[in-house]
Amino acid sequence: MGQYPTSFDRDDLLKCARGELFGPGNAQLPEPPMLMMDRITEISGDGGAHGKGHVLAEFGITPDLWFFDCHFPGNPIMPGCLGLDGLWQLTGFNLGWRGWTGRGYALGVGDVKLTGMVRPDRKMLTYKIDFTKAIQTRRLTMGVADGIVEADGEVIYQVKDMKVALSES
Q1: Residue 50 known to be catalytic
Q2: Which of 24, 57, 146, 168 is such that its CA lies 20 to 30 A from the CA of 122?
Q3: Does the keyword field hold Lipid metabolism (predicted)?
């Protein structure tokens, strides 16, 4: 750790999506419209609730976001799976940020609670991820983390035991 900054703006995230941040074959974010955050405000390998790493990130909500028109016509709500995907994206980003190699992929999530909705009048989503495990062995590179998503300061999604791995293949 220490080879990358501890915050990233949208241009940095787009570089990561193009494979330019962590290098070819390593952790990548998706490009818009699937990129589910605008900036990472904090990242560590030893911070957070368990001292095993954390990520804080933000996503500005505007009424013209692509998913509002189709989910659902006349009743626009951001799909909860997109918030979960944002949490997975950031968990994988943290593994790449640590300098660990391989392509990222989600392995699962233990528990998901959706207690609120993102409608077009919301202004800001905040992602908060706390790692419970970060494992790098000869055979396995994986992060396990808990996460929450807040909409304008209100907790709306909570997940436990998200698992993201990096693989050379």
Answers
A1: no
A2: 146
A3: yes
